[in-house]
Design goal:
The chain starts with a helix and ends with a helix. By secondary structure, the chain is mainly α. The protein is globular and about 40 Å long. The protein is 73% helix and 0% strand.
């Protein structure tokens, strides 16, 4: 599943634009799968739903989230969401300047 289909199927993804997701993923050195998991997680989907969407197991989702935590240097889900929002805001400031 690519970022376009996730954004289309999950309208709340408007908090971070598709192009922003791509840059955020690159900036944090996320794999395409980690980025897909992060996008679905950011929308508030539980691990089981993310697993169904991506045709993986909830355990695999958990492993991806753990890797994402390490790459973003965060300890919990709240910090994860805040790190994504902060990265998005930094991108938007650069775009405006």
């Amino acid at each position: 599943m690519n970022t376009q289909s996730i954004e289309r199927d999950h309208p709340g993804a408007h908090l971070v634009d598709r192009d922003e997701w791509e840059v955020i993923g690159q900036g944090f050195q996320l794999s395409p799968r980690e980025l897909s998991v992060l996008m679905l997680f950011f929308e508030g989907n539980p691990y089981r739903q993310i697993a169904r969407e991506l045709s993986i197991t909830p355990r695999t989702v958990r492993h991806h989230i753990e890797h994402i935590h390490r790459k973003l240097a965060v300890c919990d889900q709240v910090e994860l969401v805040l790190a994504v929002i902060e990265a998005r805001d930094e991108l938007r400031q650069v775009t405006v300047v």
